[in-house]
Specification:
The chain is α+β, with helices and mostly antiparallel strands. The protein has helices spanning 52-61, 67-84, 96-107, 112-119, 176-184, 192-201, 207-215; strands at residues 9-20, 23-32, 43-44, 47-49, 90-91, 122-123, 129-134, 146-154, 168-174, 221-222, 225-229, 232-236, 247-249. The longest helix is centred in the N-terminal third of the chain and has 18 residues, at 67-84.
Length: 256
């Protein structure tokens, strides 16, 4: 296994976690529209590409964070507002109405930084916990190549998630285990990185437990590789990053 020099478009996604007193935490899943070029019809976490305006805002408010890291967190917050109508990481007088105003402005093409200034809101980038980072290997021949940072965030209170009806066609809250079971019985599909992350997330009983787990492992770029195991090709990932399942027969792998 070698580290290839090629790069993908920076992207970010958020695992929004809603704790439950009587069961496992629920995660927000969105179903991509069948018309999308990337992961069409798949169940994913809210997220998308990092854009130049995210970097501009990161340069202004990123503080001690590396600018790429700050821009990734900003993109994750912005995309969650756009795709799900949830304002994770927002500060100030935040309520459901203010988040929807931000969403409307973003969908009209306005920059998040300008919208925050207009509505007297700010960002708390520390509300997002780095969890993982994935980048497809060249042999996977992905339709679009993204270098994706995954974050954990607690679900905001007194806000209701809603589908954007453009990139996504439905959303739901479900435990990681239940989402895996849903897909195994054919009621949804998940691509390889999402499955591996759900398997990892399924082992914990709260947002706090997930944050503690994330802190115990390095966030290294996961670049899957092919390996022959007992005469069958598997798609594999490293075994030191907290994932309970680190390979899958290549013929079973679902790609974007």
């Amino acid at each position: 296994m070698t580290e290839d020099a090629d790069t993908g478009r920076p992207a970010a996604t958020v695992v929004v976690v809603r704790d439950r007193a009587d069961g496992l935490p629920e995660l927000l899943m969105v179903e991509r529209a069948s018309t999308m070029a990337f992961a069409a019809g798949a169940l994913v976490f809210p997220g998308g590409a990092v854009d130049p305006a995210d970097h501009a805002l990161a340069a202004r408010i990123g503080g001690a964070l590396d600018q790429d890291e700050a821009a990734g967190r900003i993109a994750a917050i912005r995309e969650t507002i756009e795709e799900a109508g949830l304002g994770v990481g927002l500060t100030g007088a935040v309520d459901a109405a203010s988040v929807l105003r931000l969403r409307d402005g973003l969908q009209d093409g306005k920059a998040l930084g300008d919208l925050l200034d207009r509505h007297g809101l700010g960002l708390n980038l520390e509300a997002l916990t780095p969890f993982a980072r994935w980048h497809p290997a060249p042999f996977e021949q992905a339709r679009r190549v993204f270098d994706t940072r995954f974050y954990l965030a607690r679900a905001p209170q007194r806000q209701v998630a809603s589908v954007d009806k453009t990139e996504n066609v439905r959303l739901f809250w479900s435990s990681a285990a239940d989402t895996l079971a849903r897909c195994d019985r054919g009621d949804g599909r998940i691509i390889f990185p999402t499955r591996r992350n759900l398997e990892r997330l399924a082992r914990f009983a709260s947002h706090a437990d997930l944050v503690a787990h994330a802190a115990a492992y390095p966030v290294e770029k996961v670049r899957p590789w092919k390996e022959d195991r007992d005469g069958e090709l598997h798609l594999c990932i490293p075994d030191h990053l907290g994932y309970p399942v680190t390979s899958e027969p290549l013929g079973q792998v679902r790609r974007a």
